[in-house]
Amino acid sequence: MSFAAAADVGLVGHNRGFGAALEFARKAARHTCPLLIVGETGTGKDQVARLVHALSPRADGPFVSLNCAALPDSLIESELFGYERGAFTGAGRSYAGRFMAADHGTLFLDELGDLPLASQAKLLRAIEHGEVTPLGSTRPRKVDLRIVAATHQPLEAMVREHRFRQDLFYRLNVARVHLPPLRNRRDDILELAAHFMEPLRRTQEGARVGWFDASALNRLLGHVWPGNVRELRNVIEAIFIDPPDGPITERSLPSYLTHAEGWEDRGGGAAGEEEVDERQRILDSLCATHWNKSAAARKLRWSRVTLYRKMARYEITPARGA
Ligand SMILES: Nc1ncnc2c1ncn2[C@@H]1O[C@H](COP(=O)(O)OP(=O)(O)OP(=O)(O)O)[C@@H](O)[C@H]1O
């Protein structure tokens, strides 16, 4: 990955699994196929979506985002597809909607797993036909954009439980970036901490803050980080509310960090990383060969049987028609 490009949108980290995910995102950025970014809350999905847009041929076009969890079901469709004046009570003027606003650019659908089932069907139609029909209109409008979607929810399981449409899942799961949780990339914690401290050090008070002492370092490196990078950023900001003069000790850390039990590494972290790497390599080869599994298997120097076995293991679903 060109880390310079990642740094352009403020992405920091040299962990192998994270680097492999960014590398795949960078490659996928050049294509127009939809991209699905998965990862726990606070792992950087929004940031990666912006990176993909910035590196894409549509970089000069708009980047428009919609958080599917932030709107009530009744408003999602009018927000996505727009409406005509008088389409419903209160529609005093027409509204183009986010799809049209993202024309020639990227539409980022955050928290895709929260999109209501009825809207999922309309979204699929809009993607497949490249057109949207605003509420209250019968005239479809052409739109040319790239969809990047993100979710922290297990979409495969939601498909099995009929909570997410299988056809939309297949349409969006063509290229997938998995961002590892911070607990599986603890080698990035200190670099990220330094990154978040840098602007805070620019004040007179902040400039006197030193680095973490040994006990504070233990706390940082041993914490589970359920809120991932966002939680780490918040912890750093909290330290600078009443900044210490000199090294940062345990006393400067939020109390929940020093009272919580540390995370027991049972070897899962390293294995998790390797798995993320392998999954990315498989997706990379499949995307590069347009999901031709014989060609992808050759690229990976595996037999087709091995590729099928690994695809099943990592729940990699073939794109429709592949
Ligand atoms: N690799 C990184 N380098 C620097 N900052 C990062 C990185 N990853 C995440 N952040 C920062 O952490 C915060 C959360 O990131 P972001 O909003 O992209 O996460 P997310 O996965 O989209 O979260 P959510 O699922 O809750 O929407 C942001 O302030 C972002 O700038």
From TrEMBL:
Pfam families linked: AAA_lid_14, HTH_8, Sigma54_activat
PROSITE patterns: SIGMA54_INTERACT_1, SIGMA54_INTERACT_3, SIGMA54_INTERACT_4
MF terms in GO: ATP binding; sequence-specific DNA binding
GO BP: any one term: regulation of DNA-templated transcription
Classification via CDD domains: AAA
InterPro entries tied to this protein: AAA+_ATPase (IPR003593), AAA_lid_NorR (IPR058031), Homeodomain-like_sf (IPR009057), HTH_Fis (IPR002197), P-loop_NTPase (IPR027417), Sigma_54_int (IPR002078), Sigma_54_int_dom_ATP-bd_1 (IPR025662), Sigma_54_int_dom_CS (IPR025944)
Keywords attached to this entry: ATP-binding, Nucleotide-binding, Transcription, Transcription regulation
Superkingdom to which the source organism belongs: Bacteria
UniProt-listed SUPFAM superfamilies: Homeodomain-like, P-loop containing nucleoside triphosphate hydrolases
Region forming the signal peptide: none
Segments forming domain Sigma-54 factor interaction: 11-241
The protein's name in its UniProt record: Sigma 54-interacting transcriptional regulator
